[in-house]
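Hey,
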Amino acid sequence: MAQQLKDRFQRQFYYLRLSVTDVCNFKCQYCLPDGYHPNGRRSFLTLAEIERVVAAFAACGTNKIRLTGGEPSMRRDFTDIIAATASHPDIDIVATTTNGYRLKDNAQAWRDAGLSRINVSIDSLDPRQFALITGQDRFRSVMEGIDAAFTAGFDKVKVNTVLLKSLNSHEIGGFLEWIRTRPIQLRFIELMQTGEMDKFFQRYHQSGQAIKQQLIEQGWQLRERSENDGPAQVFYHPDYLGEIGLILPYESGFCLSCNRLRISALGKLHLCLFGEGGIDLRDLLQQDAQQAQLIAQIQSSLQQKAQTHYLHEGNTGATPHLASIGG
C-alpha cells in the first residue's frame, strides 16, 4: 500500500467524493435554477477510468467512496459503477447522494450491486414547496423511493435538507417529528455561497448556529466522529429513532477535521469544494500501469491544499455551482 494521503497540516484523507456526471434533471433554486446546460462536448469519466481512480485512492488508504453528480443516476451505467467500486477489497463504504428521482425503481439493484449508504435530497416536506425549490413535482415519488431503500435493506437513510430562510426554515419542527419514529439521519446543510448564486445567498442564507443551540437545549447529544465520516455534526436523542446532522461551513474550525477529496466527472482533482481550480488527472487514467504516476501526482497536489476555505470572507473560489464538482 502507498503512503496514507496526508496534507502539510497533518490531515489524513480517507474519504473520496467521486463525481460521475455533472448532469442533473432537477432545477434546485440554490444550485441550477435554470436547469442543466451542457458546456460544449464533454466526455465524463469512463467505467475503466473510474476503476483506476478508485484503485489509486484505495492504495493510499481511502476506504469510503461517495458517488455524486449532478445526479449520478443519470448515468445509464450507474449500477455498474457501484458494482465496480464496491468490488475493490479495500473500499469499505460505497455511498451515493441522489435527488431520489430514480430511487424507487432502482434501490434494490443498487443495494445488490454493493451500495452501502444512501443520501436523498429533500428540501421540504410540503409537496408544493418541494416543487417550488426543486423545479420538479416529484415529492411523493421521492418519498416512495426512501421506503424502497428501506425495503431493499438499507438500515438507515440520510436525508439532506439545505436550510433556506423563509422557504423551508419554518419546517424544522415538522422535520423533527418526521424522524421521531424513522431511522433517518436528517442533515440540515447551511446554504453555501457559490459564484453564480451571490444574490440568492444574500436573500436566503439561514445560519445553522441557532438550530444547533436549540437541539442542545432540547436534549440532543453530539456523537463522536469516525475517521471517514463526512463534515456533519451528528446529534442523537433518546426519544427519537432518527438523528440530526448539522453541516455548518461558516462555523469556526470547520476545516480542521477535513478528510475529503474530490474528483470531478471530467477527471480533475479538487482539493476543496471552494478552491481555485482542479488538477487534471485524466491523462494518468488511461492505463493500469500508470497507477504509480497517478498516486505520485495526487500526493504532490495534496501539498497545495489550503488550511481552510475563505467563505467567511466572501471568497467562493472557482466553483460556479454545487453540481459542477459534486457538492
